[in-house]
Amino acid sequence: MKISLAAGRFITLLALLAGSSLATAGTPEDLIRPIQEQWAEIKYRQPDKQQAEGYHALAEQAHRIVEANPKLPEALIWEGIVLSSEAGAKGGLGALSLAKEARQRLDEALKLNDRALNGSAYTSLATLYAKVPGWPVGFGDKERAEEYFRKALAINPDGIDPNFFYGEYLADRGRSAEALPYLEKALKAPPRPGRELADSGRRQEIQALLAKLRKENR
């Protein structure tokens, strides 16, 4: 696996933090910011074939932060997000155990504070329930996915992620006409300070899906 110089510096920094009292210092935003930044680097700048390994290394670092801060919902949410991303990048039945771990972390975060990070635990759980196969293979549940998407949007109605992922869910379900307003709203979402790369990459995904749906509905 090739790791960029920036990624190497990031992993070294987190390893140091995890092994010191600094792992419990600072605001929740301070603790999770390196995870957010490196997640965006992996998702939007690393080749697809390297992403699973990148997420795996990042999940280990995120877990160390959770171990040092077990009652911090923001840390649990981001460990869940990284595990979900690793599952998606890995694919196949081997990804199911990762998806189950992600669900556990996100459920724990909900119990602590379901409004943490603007309801991101609901968005991430909804996406898991939407994408994981249903019984008897996995725990996928389209009805629960829709319920959680609506809870996420009730907390963060203008957010880029809940609108995008709900729009994507609706499109995947053949409900393109319903999906378009959510995707258009996601594209107009206010920028998130410090999340410039993530916002840029997400907008490209939104534009690509919008173009596909509009072409199909001509």
Cα(first) to Cα(last) distance is: 43 Å
Name the overall outline: globular
Annotation field: number of helices = 10
Question: What is the count of β-strands?
Answer: 0
Q: What series of H and E elements makes up the topology? A: HHHHHHHHHH
Low-confidence stretches: 1-24
Biggest sheet features: none
Structural class: mainly alpha
Helix content: over 70%
Average pLDDT for all residues: 89
The whole-angstrom Rg is: 17 Å
Q: Give the DSSP E fraction (strand runs of 2 or more residues).
A: under 5%
Topology:
Layout: H1 5-18, H2 28-45, H3 48-68, H4 73-90, H5 96-112, H6 120-131, H7 142-155, H8 160-172, H9 176-187, H10 196-216
Helix pairs in contact: 1-3, 2-3, 2-4, 3-4, 4-5, 4-6, 5-6, 6-7, 6-8, 7-8, 8-9, 8-10, 9-10
Detailed description of the structure:
- The chain has 218 residues and is mostly helical.
- The protein is built from ten helices and no strands.
- The protein has helices at 5-18, 28-45, 48-68, 73-90, 96-112, 120-131, 142-155, 160-172, 176-187, 196-216.
